[in-house]
Structures are given as C-alpha cells and as structure tokens.
Amino acid sequence: MCGIVAYVGHREACPIVLKGLKRLEYRGYDSAGIALMNGGLNIFKRKGKVSDLEEFIADKDVHGHIGMGHTRWATHGEPNDVNAHPHYSSSKNIAIIHNGIIENYASLKQLLIEKGHTFQSETDSEVFINLIEDIKQNSNCTLAEAVRLALHEVVGAYAIVVLSKDDHNQLIAARKGSPLVVGIGEGEYFLASDATPIIEYTNDVVYINDYELVVIKNGELEIRTKEDVVQTPYVQRLEMALESIEKGGYPHFMLKEIFEQPRSILDSMRGRMIAESDHMMMGGIREFENKFVNAERIIIVACGTSWHAGLVAEYLIEDLARIPVEVEYASEFRYRNPILSERDIVVAISQSGETADTLAALELAKSKGATIFGICNVVGSSIARATDAGAYTHAGPEIGVASTKAFTAQVTVLSLIAMILGSKRGTLETTKLRQLMVELESIPAKVEKALELNDQIVQISEQYKDATNFLYLGRGYNFPVALEGALKLKEISYIHAEGYPAAEMKHGPIALIDQHMPVVVIATKDSSYEKIVSNIQEVKARKGRIIAVVTEGDTTIPAMADHVIEIPETSEHLVPLLSVIPLQLLSYHIAVMRGCNVDQPRNLAKSVTVE
User: What percent of the chain has pLDDT over 90?
Assistant: First the structure.
C-alpha cells in the first residue's frame, strides 16, 4: 500500500516529489505529505489527495534540494492531518515516511513513553521514528547506525526513508517486505515504491532487497545489510516508456488499460509462440521442465483478480496437461499448515509482484522444498526475485486500481504454460495443440472486435446504474470470469455483486431473484451450453433481468435475454480472454455514471503490501 518518494540532488525537490506522489497515488490516497530540508526540517501534510496537499503548500516556502513525500493508505489510525506522513520524532530533529506495518508497535510505544517520548498520532510509523531517535540518543551513534539497529527491534513490514535536520545532504532508507527502488541520475538520486516516479529522470535503478539499508550522502550511494555488510549495488536498466504511465487522452487509466489489451495480450505471448512454425517456448518452464512434467500437483497461490486467473489455469492445466491443480488464497494458504513436498510446484501470481500474502505463501512453500514459479508483471519485483523461475506477463504498467489487462495477460501466460505442459507430457494431441496455437494468435484481433461493443455496453449500463445488487453466473471456463466480473463491479461502483457457478444458483442465490435483480450470464457456445440455457430459463421464470454474453451468431439465448452482448467465437479453453472484456466495460461505465472515482476506488490500493 502507500507510496513513498524521495529526492536528493541539484534540482528543486518539491516538484519532483509531488509529481512522483501523483504517479503513486494508486497505492493510497487517504492523505499526503512532504518533508523538505530548507533552513530546517519542515513537514507539510493534509488529509485527502495529493491535489489537496498541493493547494495547502501553494503559499509556503518549499524550496530545497532534498525532500521526501508519502501518499497514504491508512492502517493504524484514521485518515486525517495528524496521522498523515511524514512523522517527526519527539524532538522534531528527524522525520520518517513509512510503507508497511510494524506489528510490535504497541509494546515499543509503551517502552518509549516510559522513556519520555511523546506521540502526536495513532500510527505505528511514529513509533518507528521515535525508536530510531531513542537508539541514536542512547547509543551516541550516527543516524544511519541508529536506523540499522532499529531494524533489529521492529517486527513487520517496512519501506522507510529518514531525514535529519542535522544533515542537509543525507537520505537514509531501508526495506523489508515493502518495495523500494533507487534511481541513479547525474549527481542526483531518487527513491520510490516503484519505478513510475523515476523514469522521467533516469533509466538506471537499483532494486533494494529485504533487510538492506541505503545511505545516500554527499552524492554517494552505499548499501549495507542489517548485519552491516557492505553490498555492491546491482544497477538495472528500466525498459519502461514515460507515455505508458500517462492517460494518453483517455478519461481514466482503467479505460485506457481495457483498450490496451489487444497489445498486452500480444506482448505476453510475443517470442513464446509462433503457430506457423509450431514454436512454443518459455524460459522459466524450460529451465525446470523435468520438475513440471513430473509434478505430482501444481498449487497456485494468489489474491483477488490474480486468484481468478489461477482458477482459469486450473481448468486449463488439468484439461490439457492432466496435472492436478489446487488454487489457494495466499492469505489462507500460509496459515493452514499445508502439506507440501519436493514433487509439488507452487505457482504464485501477482500483478505487482509485491503482494504481501503471496510472498509469505512463497516463503512457506520454499521452506517445505517445493519448486516456486512466479508470474508477475513488474520486473525486479520481490516475487520475481524470490522464485526459482518464472514468467513476466509484459502487460506494461497498470495504474488503475481495478486490474483489467493484468488479468488477460496472466490468463495468456497461463494458457501458454498449459499448452507447453500438455505437449511435453503427451496429453495434448499435436493437431489440437496447433489449433489452440492458431486460435491464441487470433485472440488480440478478437479482443479488438469485442472492444467495439463499448457503445452498446454504455446503453446497457445506463439502465442498470442504479441497481443495488448484481448476480453473475458462468459455467466451466466462464465461472472464474463470473467471479471476476462481479469483483470489478463491486470494486469500482460499490454495488453489491456476487459471482456463482450457474448450477449453484438453485442452491441459494435463486431466492434473491426478482424483477429488480440484474443477472449477468456468460453463456458462450461450449460443452455446458445446454445447461446454462436451462439456468437462464430458471432466472426468467422468476422475472430476473438477463444480460447475456453470448457467442456471435447465437439465436437461442437472444430470444430469452433482456440484453445480449455478442463476442467472437473462440476455443472453449480461451474464451475467458474474450468474455471478460464486456464485463470490464460494464463495470467501468456503471461506475462512471454513478460518479465514482474509477481509478482510485474508496478503501482500495493497487499493491497490497501489508497483511
């Protein structure tokens, strides 16, 4: 959660930090603040968005060449001016910004109060900075050393940046469990939660590892471990274009990202599959081919939209490769003492590569000897570095909090994995494999065609924007799509929505259906088509309003449904890549019509880096 930005160099820090906070606002937008060195250590902060902070400091002296900023997703303490970051220590000599949660903050706070420290906020972060100050005062050490020693005392997750009014040329930072990247420019340095605030100024970055301490002083960068061992920075080159994090003329990032899917799906398979030459290859799979081919089972761990992509993968891998698959919520998997062995492969799916629960699940699986495979979108992310092997989705930056292109990119990569494993295990006939390859190559063009439904979906959205409940139904490969469609709607429009396997409707949800209940049914031509036609008739018999997503040319369901959305025909195995498109557009347009903040829905953040 939370976004942090810092700068030290020859430029004015404030504009750089504010622009960076705007680019990180998808990580949290309850409150925002900056700290600047300009004749002292001065903090300016406000409840609300970065724009509220900008308005507050418009008449303030914000000159200075070293500064840091924070945009918050509240954990400890409600969103208000006092709980906003940065936080001073008791003496106001040092200040901190913090992304994460300090689990033992209560006991530390009580100890510090007994020592005479005072607190203004309800946050765990203020405890952290007072602990650092207490160590510095009592150990008579440097600030960098005090920060290092404090890391041994705190339990939890953190990415922090610390400033001191006694040193106008020093930034200190550290991380454990929350992302942190350092940008290296010409005589200047940038720190941020991810690379989006940095790429405008430099493409050279260092991804900081857990338990590492960063000291930037007098134009020099030094990285040490928590045990005080000096590390050699590994400088990587960013391959991200500035325009990829701009709206590009769209009213919202979410709509832009929905319409980017033909490209992001193509990029996710680019170089990995060429149907014409029967070429299929994925580096991470090739490296561990024997383990995958001989796996007793594959366990997929993920959260939210990535979990839905994992459910699609369960159908794909079991059908095409005949390997048992279990799909687990990472947040539950890590706490239930799962049975794992060296014959198991654990696949972690995460857009950001920083999801705290998924990372913890990986560490658990690794401790049991399982092979760990990661699927994520962000190069250099924690999951990418923690896994034995993996695959990037190449969807490009996704700024909208509600994932869209991340889902289809993940399903694309998972489809490739299922096809490769089916081929290697001999469970997928060559003829069928070639058919699937040709069909997958045609998906970007078919997504383009599905996006042409936008105007029709605007009209449907107008009729249902005031609904209070939605039901989404699907069978087989479309059941996870029903779950994803319901999640998208409730995430950004705040309408209660539930996704169900269509056959389960009779086991409870049918009691909810009346003339006021919109029911979205994904009813494409597949092996369960006749069954879902029956489910639609059951809904209509109870006066439910049917919005049906059907295969182009269907004549049966249009005679029963109130609204029909036709998508191009494709293989049953790949239909989620098309059937999800209208549901994304439906949720988007309903949210816009209800006046909701589509890109920054309430109470949510893009990257869930805390438990």
Answer: 66
pLDDT 10s digits, 235-253: 988 876 666 677 788 999 9
Among candidate residues 301, 307, 312, 291, the one with its CA nearest the CA of residue 334: 301
CB contact set of 526 (below 8 Å; sequence gap of 6+): 475, 476, 477, 478, 572, 575
Of residues 352, 306, 401, 309, the one with CA closest to residue 591? 401
For range 16-30, the mean pLDDT: 88
Instruction: Assign 303 to helix, strand or coil.
Output: coil
pLDDT, tens digit, for every residue of 175-217?
998 889 999 999 999 999 988 899 889 999 999 999 999 999 9
The residues that are catalytic are 2, 606
Q: In this structure, are strands 273-274 and 236-237 parallel, antiparallel, or unpaired?
A: unpaired
Q: Where is average pLDDT lowest: 359-363, 417-421, 492-496, 583-587?
A: 359-363
Beta bridge partners of 547: 520, 563
Indicate the DSSP class of residue 413. Answer: H
Which position has the token pair 């954990």? 75
What residue type is assigned to position 502 of the chain?
Answer: A
Per 3-state DSSP, what percentage of the chain is helix, strand, and coil (rounded to 5)? 40, 25, 35
Query: Is 524 in contact with 475 (CB distance < 8 Å)?
Result: no
Place of tokens 């006046």: 595
Is 464 within 8 Å of 475 (Cβ atoms)? no
CA dist 499 and 473 (Å) reads 6
pLDDT by residue (tens digit) across 70-104?
998 777 778 888 999 999 999 999 999 999 889 99
DSSP-derived secondary structure for 83-138: TSSPEE-TTSSEEEEEEEEETTHHHHHHHHHHTT----SS-HHHHHHHHHHHHHHH
Could you tell me the two tokens for 471? 């039901």
Structure tokens, 45: 């902060």
Handedness of CA 158, 161, 166, 167 (dihedral sign): positive
**Nearest partner of 151 among 119, 171, 177, 170, judged by Cα:** 177
| This prediction's pTM | 0.81
User: Where does residue 114 rank: exposed (0-12), middle (13-18), buried (19+ CB within 10 A)?
Assistant: exposed
List, in sequence order, the alpha helices (H) in 170-303.
253-259, 261-269, 283-287, 289-293
Q: How many residues does the chain have?
A: 611
The DSSP call for residue 528 is T
Residue 155 phi/psi, 5° resolution?
-115, 130
Cα separation, 215 vs 191, in Å, equals: 11
Query: What separation in angstroms does the CA of 246 have from each of 5, 22, 181, 400, 430?
Result: 18, 11, 20, 11, 43
Residue with tokens 């069928």: 432
Euclidean distance between CA atoms 145 and 136, whole angstroms: 8
Q: Which of 579, 554, 314 is nearest to 443 (CA)?
A: 579
Give the separation between CA 440 and CA 565, rounded to whole angstroms: 22
Q: Please tell me the distance from the alpha carbon of residue 230 to that of residue 420, in angstroms, as a whole number.
A: 43
